């Protein structure tokens, strides 16, 4: 039997078109407003989303895609996976939820990490042998009813059991042999109960997301997937089940899902474009609906409707039914491009944000099922926009292209590391265990205000520059007083480490309101990289020179690397990412050269996103790391041996990129390490890393000031692994989110600890 789902989107933004949820959350957390107010804002946002999706004509409107903080946390709470230490706080359900998300004084929050290869962060559930699963929260059912009261029948969305367990980590007290997936059998009855309740409430369809299967999975994990859906599909009274994977090719999991007793399977045909090749071999799809994820949920370009339709047409005979969907949830794109007033009109005509993507889904589905003629005009308009973009002269800058086409291996190679070290030491004359920071100093409200006033035109450039110069002087004086060895200017002029550079390069546009949730109430506004990239004039040199003129100590210039610029932008999809990376690299290379000419002898090029962009499938790692490493080296190899190149990496376990860190060949690499107690140094040793390294000696993510003894201990541990000539001393990351009070205290302690260790050398 064929069962219909109709056109749909896998999820939708929830922070609010004007970030209403962000404001409501933050004012609730600060105690300014009460929970009734928060609930009211949340309810309005949900109603608005359901109505909008319903009125746009989707065949199936999702629900439970709203979250007060994070959908993985929501799932953990629904399933009863709340660690004892949060239950013991004795808070009510909402505040227990926020305690898990944000911590309370006595209890830190759950760990947070990146959601697959996106810049969204989820809270990591903790599962142990004793976790007491049980349907302890009925939010999915309540939301279904809430939408029902508006006359809209929705499709509740919940993270699937395997992805939930695969994303969880083992509870601290679990035996080493334990893995959260061991608990599948105990978890499935809770899913079954939830499905039965949803069925009783009238839900026709439920979506269970299994994106974890777009990454490498072991045979036993695939077997568990089979078991899970055999069991859930075998329930006698249940809604129809729709199971999508997304963020890449589903690989073998697709065969498992195709033969499972479920009614619909979803595939990401944007990130997993080769999936179409295997679909025809899956006879199990003949009695199922295939939701073809042809509208890109991760990027902001208008869909190539003709291309999507021809792909969809090839699927028609393969599945019982084909519906059009998004490749993944639309959580990763902003709300509405029509709200943008300042984007260049031609570029704007090429864009589709969430709202426009819903229209594209509806349109494609109609064209597929009712015929192109019914929607001829809209198809023509869409085609015109896509062709306009394809043909646009402004995408190409022949100077940029001829430059990257002439690149040779030697452009990405520096001199012998030992000679570099000697040359640099001759110029810099640094003491053993040199101290430095990662770049930013606290961004005070005065600094933020000055930037805002300048952007609104309320102060002129001269006033702005003099205020920033004063701030730089204060930061330099502070570092001198602290006795640090390599100083920074503090980055007061930067709103964000990627946006700042994109605003000063050709090939990018910024949005006014293109906010995307990063975690909780935090949003980012990624720039849009639409054309060939170049740097018309120096960006940071003036600030760095000013800082340099204020001190006799070396000042480190501060840049963002090509991989991170790409990772935190919406990138063009009309050429390979590696090619775009080369262009960005050459723009940064120009900046590095200008810093060197201005007498800045130390330049740091940050690549905190190196790990983030690593493909989910290991077979693709090599190709990614090739271009990623090459682009960093292109950016940093244009200088003399005497110029010292630093890089900074954070946010991750470095395991899978550890060889790449060696290959970057920076003179000094600073890394996040305080929380992992310097383990990264052994990892680096094991792959033959032989350059300078600055493992962070204290965690800047917490306001806690580390004491001298604790830093000293970490330094002595580091010296066990690294010879003194190669060891640097610095915090874990930039200081911009901290207050001066704590930063001063922490840096004084860092400095004192270094003195003690130096004295004992
Ligand atoms: N130089 C940047 C800063 O200090 C690095 C930020 C980062 O690692 N994310 O803020
Ligand atoms: Zn960092």
From TrEMBL:
SUPFAM superfamilies recorded: UROD/MetE-like
Gene that specifies this protein: metE
Binding residues annotated for Zn(2+) 1, in chain numbering: 648, 650, 663, 672, 733
NCBIfam families cross-referenced by the UniProt entry: met_syn_B12ind, PRK05222.1
Name this polypeptide is given: 5-methyltetrahydropteroyltriglutamate--homocysteine methyltransferase
Residues covered by region (Disordered): 397-424
Binding site for 5-methyltetrahydropteroyltri-L-glutamate: 19-22, 114, 119, 522-523, 568, 612
Residues that, per the record, bind Zn(2+): 648, 650, 672, 733
Cofactor list: Zn(2+)
């Amino acid at each position: 039997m064929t069962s219909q789902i109709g056109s749909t989107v896998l999820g939708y933004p929830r922070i609010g078109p004007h970030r209403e949820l962000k404001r409501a959350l933050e004012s609730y957390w600060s105690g300014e407003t009460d929970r009734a107010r928060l609930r009211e804002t949340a309810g309005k946002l949900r109603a608005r989303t359901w109505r909008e999706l319903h009125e746009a004509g989707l065949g199936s409107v999702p629900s439970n895609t709203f979250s007060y903080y994070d959908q993985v946390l929501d799932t953990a709470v629904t399933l009863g996976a709340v660690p004892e230490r949060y239950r013991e706080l004795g808070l009510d359900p909402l505040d227990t939820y926020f305690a898990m998300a944000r911590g309370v004084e006595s209890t830190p929050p759950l760990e947070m990490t990146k959601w697959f290869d996106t810049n969204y962060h989820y809270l990591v559930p903790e599962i142990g042998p004793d976790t007491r699963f049980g349907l302890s929260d009925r939010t999915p059912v309540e939301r279904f009813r809430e939408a029902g009261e508006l006359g809209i029948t929705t499709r509740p969305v919940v993270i699937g059991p395997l992805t939930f367990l695969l994303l969880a980590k083992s509870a601290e007290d679990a035996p080493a042999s334990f893995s959260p997936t061991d608990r599948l059998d105990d978890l499935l009855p809770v899913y079954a109960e939830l499905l039965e309740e949803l069925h009783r409430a009238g839900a026709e369809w439920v979506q269970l997301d299994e994106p974890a299967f777009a990454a490498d999975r072991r045979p036993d994990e695939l077997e568990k997937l089979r078991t899970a859906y055999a069991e859930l599909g075998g329930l006698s009274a249940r809604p129809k089940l729709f199971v999508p994977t997304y963020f890449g090719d589903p690989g073998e999991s697709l065969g498992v899902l195709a033969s499972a007793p479920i009614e619909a399977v979803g595939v990401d045909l944007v990130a997993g474009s080769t999936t179409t090749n295997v679909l025809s071999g899956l006879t199990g799809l003949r009695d199922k609906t295939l939701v073809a994820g042809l509208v890109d949920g991760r990027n902001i370009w208008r869909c190539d409707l003709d291309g999507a339709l021809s792909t969809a047409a090839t699927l028609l005979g393969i599945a019982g039914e084909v519906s059009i969907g998004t490749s993944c949830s639309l959580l990763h794109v902003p709300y509405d491009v029509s709200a943008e007033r300042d984007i260049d009109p031609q570029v704007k005509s090429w864009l589709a944000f969430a709202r426009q993507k819903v229209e594209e889904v509806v349109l494609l589905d109609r064209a597929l099922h009712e015929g192109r003629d019914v929607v001829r005009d809209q198809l023509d308009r869409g085609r015109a926009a896509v062709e306009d973009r394809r043909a646009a002269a402004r995408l190409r800058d022949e100077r940029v292209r001829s430059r990257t086409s002439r690149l040779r291996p030697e452009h990405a190679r520096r001199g012998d590391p030992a000679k570099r070290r000697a040359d640099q030491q001759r110029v810099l004359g640094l003491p053993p265990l040199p101290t430095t920071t990662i770049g930013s100093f606290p961004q005070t409200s005065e600094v933020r205000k000055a930037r805002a006033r300048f952007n609104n035109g309320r102060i002129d450039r001269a006033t702005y520059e003099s205020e920033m110069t004063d701030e730089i002087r204060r930061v330099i004086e502070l570092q001198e007083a602290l006795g640090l060895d390599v100083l920074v200017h503090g980055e007061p002029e930067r709103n964000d480490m990627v946006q700042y550079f994109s605003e000063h390069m050709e090939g990018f546009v910024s949005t006014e309101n293109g906010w995307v949730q990063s975690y909780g109430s935090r949003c980012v506004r990624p720039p849009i990289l639409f054309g060939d990239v170049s740097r018309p004039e120096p960006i940071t040199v003036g600030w760095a020179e000013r800082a340099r003129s204020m001190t006799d100590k070396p000042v480190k210039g501060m840049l963002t690397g090509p991989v991170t610029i790409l990772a935190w932008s919406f990138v063009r999809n009309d050429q390979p990412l590696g090619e775009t990376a080369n262009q960005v690299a050459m723009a940064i290379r120009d900046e590095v050269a200008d810093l060197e000419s201005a007498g800045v002898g130390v330049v740091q090029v940050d690549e905190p996103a190196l790990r983030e962009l690593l493909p989910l499938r290991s077979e693709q790692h090599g190709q990614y790391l090739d271009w990623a490493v090459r682009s960093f080296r292109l950016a940093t190899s244009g200088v003399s041996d005497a110029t010292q190149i630093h890089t900074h990496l954070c946010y991750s376990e470095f395991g899978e990129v550890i060889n790449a860190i060696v290959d970057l060949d920076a003179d000094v690499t600073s890394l996040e390490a305080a929380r992992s107690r310097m383990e990264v140094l052994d990892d680096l040793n094991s792959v033959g890393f032989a350059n300078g390294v600055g493992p962070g000696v204290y965690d800047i993510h917490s306001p806690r000031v580390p004491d001298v003894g604790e830093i000293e201990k970490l330094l002595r541990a580091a010296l066990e692994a690294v010879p003194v000539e190669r060891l640097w001393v610095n915090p874990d990351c930039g200081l911009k989110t901290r207050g001066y009070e704590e930063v001063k205290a922490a840096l004084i302690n860092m400095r004192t600890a270094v003195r003690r260790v130096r004295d004992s050398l």
